[in-house]
Amino acid sequence: MCGIVAYIGPREAYPVILKGLKRLEYRGYDSAGVALLNSGLKVFKKKGKVAELEENTIGKDLHAHIGIGHTRWATHGEPNDRNAHPHSSNSGKLAMIHNGIIENYAQLKQELVRKGYHFKSDTDTEVLLNFIEDIKINNKCPLEEAVRIALKRIVGAYVIVLIDQDNPDTLIAARKGSPLVIGIGKNEHFLASDASPIIEYTKEVVYVNDYEIAIIKADELILKNLGNERQTPFITKLDMELAAIEKGGYDHFMLKEIFEQPTTIYDCLRGRLDAENGTITMSGIQKYADQIVNAHRIVMVACGTSWHAGLVAEYIFEELCRINVEVEYASEFRYRNPVINKGDVIIAISQSGETADTLVAIENAKSKGAIILGVVNVVGSSIARVSNAGAYTHAGPEIGVASTKAFTAQLAVLTMIALKIGYEKGTLPHDRYMQLARELEAIPEKVTALLQQHEHIKQLAEKYRDARDFLYLGRGYNFPVALEGALKLKEISYIHAEGYPAAEMKHGPIALVDETLPVVFIATKDSYHEKVISNMQEIKARKGKVIAVINEGDEQSIKLADDVIIVPEADEILLPMLSVIPLQLLAYYIGVSKELDVDKPRNLAKSVTVE
Ligand code: M6R
């Protein structure tokens, strides 16, 4: 949610910042802007994507060795030029970018207005900036000191980066709740919301912690806490290659990421699952294995697609480990005073590792004595760091706003944890454990085979692209897949879609069925198959159009359905990793056929760092 980039050093700042903003555009694309310091402060900003900003700066004097840039996902104030970041202060000397929300901005604004400050935008950011400027002027103190004083009064989440015309060789940054990475180069520093704008210049980074202020010159990085005490920067080596964040010949990141799934699932299993010898090695989980085995309750906490992965895992854990599992929307869990007993295990599932609701939910649960396990994709992210332990999904950077490869990697990790715990607990017999381990190992190959049907799915997309609504139905392990299929279609194609447990359809949604409604059944061969076929018949009796995701040789479904997509067979526990893939492709191709920006669907952002 909002991407920030900054640079200080010998290079031209503008091209570094612009390239960085393009890499971070998945975090928000309502507007983009840069502020550069040379002989004075210059701010360029524009509603829309980074390309609009780029076009708007053609022919302008952009020379500078220090600058800040921002790509916005609007919270306070509509997306327009005025509300775009960077904002400049009333004196015109300070400029600031911000990712987060300042909750008490209205009160601060009133105080500032009484003092004669005026505001050009509707944003909370401009209020915080002028609040800092006011402190700086009144206390006659350096900017760093003013920031520290201001932040003590701030309620909310932020990463801020400021430049000051009176001090043109220093960037000041601070973080609470939103991510900030600093890349350490040779006499230069790069700041960004994640490592993708930094990776091509340096692999040495510092993840700034909450309540830290960074004072950054070209050749020096000082970190301090809000009590003005120096902190030692902890330098981490990035384990990421530039190719991972480029499209690599695909039309869109989403398509690339769908097609990467055989590799990402394999990478996720690699070094952990040894099906031949029947071992699963997950050091983070092993440390807490006894507590998980003895836990009375596991709560999965997540949002969006990650929440759907939690729902699949609920079925798997209950089946294999016989532990009571609840799956919670993080946004509800964090506010409703949930009962948490010492020893409860909370599994936080998150691609970005920065989702604000999930982060706060686990912080609350941790303070009440729960053990937090993170199933996270982005290494070093906030959720990973707050968790007691966990397992990374190793899916590599996911840039398309719609989550695809992260989902199947989450399922792979959660399945391995369930297998491990069920086996150690004795609720999963040896033979079944070995069979599931072998089948899990074979999933990447099956995904490869499945992806070969992309042309067929593209044709289905053409056929159904003009539908106004879609229904997705599945049962058991495939019920969350129905939810996920519907979510993908909504976010990519803007077609209204709903997912339901197939049997629940009779309790209301069936009223929607007529000859114009496509109903996608996830009807693979599992314990619910016969029941799903009955549900399919009920839809056909009302003239609905049936698209069935089935296994080979399912003659009953083939007879009933208008169209079928065949997925390879697998144990029902593992089927979601396969059955979701045609739904990802269907959403993708419908979005493309409608000429929509599938990588950056409207109103969305990849990383939701505001609640
Ligand atoms: O980074 P997270 O997994 O915590 O993100 C959770 C959701 O915001 C995310 O899954 C969202 O629903 C995606 N747009 C789904 O495609």
What's a quick, concise take on this entry?
The protein is built from 21 helices and 27 strands.
Would you kindly provide a written description of the structure presented here, covering whatever features stand out?
This protein has 611 residues and is of the alpha/beta class. It has three domains: 3-244, 4-Layer Sandwich (Glutamine Phosphoribosylpyrophosphate, subunit 1, domain 1), CATH 3.60.20; 247-450, Glucose-6-phosphate isomerase like protein, domain 1 (Rossmann fold, 3-Layer(aba) Sandwich); 453-611, 3-Layer(aba) Sandwich (Rossmann fold), CATH 3.40.50.10490. 37% of the residues lie in helices and 23% in strands. The chain contains 21 helices and 27 strands. An eight-stranded antiparallel beta sheet has the order 3-2-4-1-10-9-11-15, with helices on one face. A seven-stranded antiparallel beta sheet has the order 5-6-7-8-12-13-14, covered by helices on one side. Strand 20, helix 12 and strand 21 (371-376) form a beta-alpha-beta unit. The termini are close together. The structure holds 5-amino-5-deoxy-1-O-phosphono-D-mannitol. Residues 303-306, 350-352, 355, 358, 401-403, 487, 491, 604, 607-608 line the site of 5-amino-5-deoxy-1-O-phosphono-D-mannitol (M6R).
List the topology elements:
Blueprint: E1 3-8, H1 13-23, E2 31-37, E3 41-47, H2 50-56, E4 66-72, E5 87-88, E6 94-102, H3 105-114, H4 124-139, H5 143-153, E7 156-164, E8 171-176, E9 181-184, E10 189-192, E11 204-207, E12 212-217, E13 220-225, E14 230-231, E15 235-237, H6 253-259, H7 261-269, E16 273-274, E17 279-280, H8 283-286, H9 289-294, E18 297-302, H10 304-321, E19 324-329, H11 330-333, E20 345-350, H12 356-367, E21 371-376, H13 382-386, E22 389-392, H14 405-425, H15 430-441, H16 443-451, H17 454-464, E23 469-474, H18 479-493, E24 496-501, E25 518-522, H19 529-541, E26 545-551, H20 555-560, E27 563-567, H21 576-593
Parallel strand pairs: 18-19, 18-20, 20-21, 21-22, 23-24, 23-25, 25-26, 26-27
Antiparallel strand pairs: 1-4, 1-10, 2-3, 2-4, 5-6, 6-7, 7-8, 8-12, 9-10, 9-11, 11-15, 12-13, 13-14, 16-17
Bound molecules: 5-amino-5-deoxy-1-O-phosphono-D-mannitol.
